[in-house]
Design a protein that fits this description.
The structure is a single chain. 73% of the residues lie in helices and 0% in strands. The radius of gyration is 16 Å and the shape is globular. It is built from 7 helices and no strands. It is mostly helical. Helix 1 runs parallel beside helix 5, helix 1 packs antiparallel against helix 7 and helix 6 packs across helix 7. The protein has one domain.
């Protein structure tokens, strides 16, 4: 017999992992051919923190941090929290959501066209999302 609380926490951790992979691919797409950012991880880190070119990823970064904190605090066993994380992540890639994520979606679509790894990471994220039951199921 499985423990539903452990399953919920595992879903949250899996979603976080897929979101991190997605985030890395978006960063690589945004860096593109910029030689100043390609070879120096510290320069890239400071660009991620302060360069407006990366600001659109803020909602994704915050979502990852909230999921990880929830898992670390042992609060991911609550299915309602996992549902909320699922819906928020799905909205970022165009599965629901509204105006608040429109800018993210537009940048994501551009990155999909420029970097094949973004498409692969988006697919892995969709797979992680589909593993989490929605409220309507």
């Amino acid at each position: 017999m499985t423990n539903p609380n452990a399953d919920n926490a595992a879903h949250a951790a899996s979603l976080s992992s897929a979101l991190k992979d997605f985030h890395r691919s978006l960063i690589r797409a945004e860096i593109g051919d910029d030689p100043a950012l390609q070879n120096n991880p510290y320069t890239m880190l400071f660009a991620l923190i302060g360069d407006p070119r990366f600001a659109w990823m803020g909602a994704l970064s915050e979502l990852i941090a909230r999921i990880d904190q929830t898992v670390a605090d042992g609060e991911a066993a609550d299915i309602e929290i996992v549902f909320a994380f699922r819906e928020e992540a799905a909205a970022l890639i165009g599965e629901g959501g509204g105006e608040s994520v429109a800018a993210f979606r537009l940048r994501h679509l551009t990155a999909l066209q420029n970097e094949p790894e973004v498409g692969l990471a988006t697919g892995r994220l969709r797979k992680a999302l589909s593993a989490i039951p929605s409220k309507n199921r």
